[in-house]
Design brief:
Elements: E1 12-15, E2 18-21, E3 30-35, H1 42-53, H2 55-60, E4 63-69, H3 73-87, E5 95-97, H4 102-106, E6 121-126, E7 132-138, H5 146-162
Parallel strand pairs: 3-4, 4-5
Antiparallel strand pairs: 1-2, 3-6, 6-7
Length: 167
């Protein structure tokens, strides 16, 4: 299970945007990688919509978004299209279909005391050198706060740029 300061484990995966490899992400960009337990559920839909709606803020912070769940690529695509059709919100970032749970296991997203078949709500902040800078874990039944995610990302970047500590 990776820790803060570790190099982010590389992987290849099928996503809603095609095949990706973590090491192929732009060398000058941050990555916020986040998991959700299951498609077509209220909390996951709200959270993913939150990432999608606030994507311009992440882009302004030189950050790419990367989602993940253990659902199939077909379930992901159906969910993405359903949300877009019914709400107008488009998840315009790749969502990993981790059916074999390889990425989830590499990143400690499967936590046996919580679930062995669904990824917990995890967020990994990965800097341009592909170092893990911050990790947030949430149980299956508690949603994330987008303001806190953006605040933490901004603080990490500000700290790097100005060599200061941030609240």
């Amino acid at each position: 299970m990776p820790r803060i300061g570790d190099q982010a484990p590389d992987f290849e995966a099928v996503t809603t945007k095609g095949k990706i490899k973590l090491s192929d992400f732009a060398k000058d960009k941050w990555i916020v990688m986040f998991s959700h337990p299951a498609n077509f559920t209220p909390v996951c839909t709200t959270e993913m919509s939150g990432f999608a709606i606030r994507k311009p803020e992440f882009e302004a912070l030189n950050t790419e978004l990367l989602g993940l769940s253990i659902d199939s690529i077909h379930a992901h695509l159906g969910w993405v299209n359903n949300i877009r059709k019914n709400t107008g919100v488009y998840f315009d970032f790749p969502i990993i279909a981790d059916m074999d749970m390889k990425v989830s296991k590499k990143y400690g997203m499967l936590q046996p005391n919580e679930s062995e078949t669904a990824a917990v709500r995890a967020v990994f902040f990965i800097d341009p050198s592909k170092k893990i800078r911050l990790i947030m874990y949430y149980p299956l039944n508690v949603g994330r706060n987008m303001d806190e995610i953006i605040r933490a990302l901004t603080a990490l970047q500000m700290s790097d740029k100005h060599k200061v500590e941030c609240l």
